[in-house]
Write a structure and sequence with these properties.
alpha+beta, 11 strands, 9 helices, Jelly Rolls, eight-stranded mixed β-sheet
Length: 286
């Protein structure tokens, strides 16, 4: 299998077909270069080395979170209509979904291949059944992604692999990491394009053998009844929360989930805690 590329005007059905078949697809030129440059200008100054400098975090990789607070322009990517429509279909086995994390990643020169993994291992390596995705991910190219500068490497079709145990999963990932040139494919794309992939797809940031820095913005979504990877409730000041639109606030987690999760006080709409004027009946937020 291979990574396929679709144009920005491709319909949702074509994207969904690629995700079901390969677990990934690149949408070319979904945002313009001026948007890319503004987001870079907002976020690059905040890049810092990850405290835990291990193979997974990357010894030459820098990151910055708090995207909603730091880049008003990036909020439109989080709320991009095509992305949300695709996400809704990808995670349709849940009542609703929420923002999982948003983070800019800069893979610097000398970076090694990130260990191949599945994003949904974040949930304590729980063995979700094959075909049951808990997350849906986007990687927006803020610089050109090439095989040489650290483009995300994926194993198309690996979302269909079902390991019987954690040991088997880790063994599979180790084999893919060792044999990455044969087993993985680089998602090469120009700045402004975006990679979609499912939470069960094996992938990892590629090695960077160039002198340039590869910069991407990852925005991930997860089922409404799971804990978010990035804590959205701590990273945004009251001033930021006051200016955000209701649909973004609810995507951040200020809404109910499943049948009764996430209420505030006595079955109140959780958004009432920060924006009382937006309060609805709790059941309406599910």
């Amino acid at each position: 299998m291979t990574i396929n590329y679709l144009s920005a005007d491709s319909d949702i059905e074509a994207i969904e077909t690629e995700l079901k078949s390969n677990g990934c697809v690149v949408i070319e030129d979904l945002i313009d270069k001026s948007t890319v440059e503004q987001i870079k200008s907002d976020l690059v100054p905040h890049l810092t080395p990850t405290p835990a400098k291990d193979k997974f975090a990357g010894r030459h990789t820098k990151r910055a979170g708090l995207v909603i607070a730091r880049s008003p322009k990036a909020r439109a990517l989080i709320m991009h209509p095509k992305v949300l429509e695709v996400t809704e279909k990808a995670l349709s086995h849940s009542t609703n979904f929420q923002l999982h994390n948003a983070q800019v990643l800069a893979v610097g020169p000398g970076s090694a291949l990130q260990p191949i993994h599945r994003d949904q291992w974040a949930f304590d390596f729980f063995p979700f059944p094959s075909g049951f995705d808990t997350t849906f991910s986007t990687m927006w190219a803020l610089t050109d992604f090439t095989a040489e500068n650290g483009a995300t490497r994926l194993v198309p079709g690996s979302h269909k692999v079902n390991e019987s145990s954690l040991e088997e999963a880790l063994s599979t990932a180790k084999n893919l990491t060792i044999n990455f040139e044969e087993e993985t494919e680089a998602a090469e794309m120009e700045a402004g394009s975006v990679l979609f992939y499912t939470g069960s797809l094996y992938h990892g940031a590629g090695p960077n053998s160039t002198e340039s820095v590869r910069i991407g913005l990852t925005i991930q979504y997860t089922l409404g009844w799971l804990r978010q990877e990035e804590n959205q409730y701590l990273g945004n000041s009251s001033e930021v929360l006051d200016e955000l639109p209701e649909d973004l606030l609810r995507l951040m987690g200020y809404k109910g989930a499943a049948s009764s999760l996430g209420f505030y006080d006595n079955l109140k709409d959780p958004v009432a805690a920060i924006r009382p004027e937006l309060e609805k009946d709790f059941n309406e937020t599910l």
